[in-house]
Amino acid sequence: MTANWKDINKPSSPATAVTAAQVANGPVIPPQQRLLTYSADEWEGFVEEWAYYCLTANYKHVQRFSGAGDMGIDVAGFVDDKRLQGVWDNYQCKHYDHAIRPSDVWAEFGKVIWHSYSGEYTIPRHYYFVSPRGSGTSLSRLFSNAEKLRDELIANWDKHVKVAITSKQEVLLDAKLRAYVDAFDFSIFDAKTALQLVGDHRTTPVHVARFGGGLPTRPSSEKPPQVVAVAESRYVTQLLGAYGEHTGTTLTDPSALSVPKLKDHFRRQREAFYEAESLRVFARDSVPPGTFESLLDDIHDGVIDTHDATHADGYEKVCAVTKAARDMQITANALITCTKPKDRDGICHQLVNEERIRWTRP
Question: What region holds the ABC-three component systems C-terminal domain (predicted)?
Answer without folding.
Answer: 232-359
